[in-house]
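Internal tracking record. Fields below are filled automatically when a chain is submitted to the structure queue. Please do not edit lines marked as system-generated. If the sequence contains nonstandard residues, flag them in the REMARKS field before resubmitting.
Queue: standard
Priority: normal
Entity type: single polypeptide chain
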Amino acid sequence: MQNKPLHGLRILDLTKLLPGPFATMMLADLGAQVISVVSPKIGDPLSSMPQLFSALNRHKEILTLDFTNPDDLQNFYGECKNVDIVIEGFRPGVTKKLGVDFDTIKKFNPKIIYCALSGYGQNGPSAAKAAHDINYLAECGVLHQMGIDQMNGALPNIQLSDLAGGFNACIAILAAVYARGQTGKAQFLDIALMDSALSMAVIPFSMMMERGKVPQSGREMLNGGQACYHTYQTSDHKYIALGAFEKKFWANLCRALQTEELIDSHMTTGPENINAIQKLSSIFLTKTRDEWVTFFANQDVCLSPVLDLSEAMKNPQTTAREMFVKQAQTTQIGNALKISEH
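SYSTEM-GENERATED OUTPUT FOLLOWS
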């Protein structure tokens, strides 16, 4: 781990479930020493999911402490003196009751970076409310943007709020490390999962502000409303994804399919766009997914097969990028950050 960019950075991780452990997993992958603090009374709720537990805790150390035990609490304070970062995922007010809040920790380490990663943030009327990923997506308007046609609120099997919060925690922590290096002062980071989800809605929000109305799920330029940016079923009941956003790619597609009459239908609306979707839908039903991939192999059209996760493991591109790695006698998703010295 000594040749990794975050070697020497020490982190005490008080988080559970997905957002915090995902953030510290990425930091550990980059060389940070992460010590995951686990309560002997509660344990880790993800331990019942061994594959996920193993992935989120790779490269981490486990420290069992009971904050209601005075001796364990003192041991924790001792650990805080020798770390750079503490990250916690409790609802606001809980750390104060436990004696592990920012103001308390700062007494033992005046230069501590303290990351509070919570659902709604440290202030506001919902700050203390219980919730999960689905709730944050729902309340910030993101869930409404998902789905097809009138089926608003289709749930992705990717926990967007949780993971966006984890990414933002990483960014904030690294920014705080730099800031502390400049000022020598402690840093308090307030990261909310709902804020993180909302921050990703930059395109639909901008569309709403320009038009004066909320974008519709399944009807917009980038969510299936355009023939050139759409998924199409194939003869084997699988799908291909077409991303011919620029007209040159759309024109290449139309020529390859001998449908040159559709070239001028690029980014149109109304009946002309519907006609293009219907025509392409009929054409793509004439071959299997993989036959279409072969057909377009040498065409510059932005077309891809819709793969399931087991197929993605065999994708030559994910293999070349080492995005599936052997770890603890199993296979896990690798680190997307590729950093090297030159």
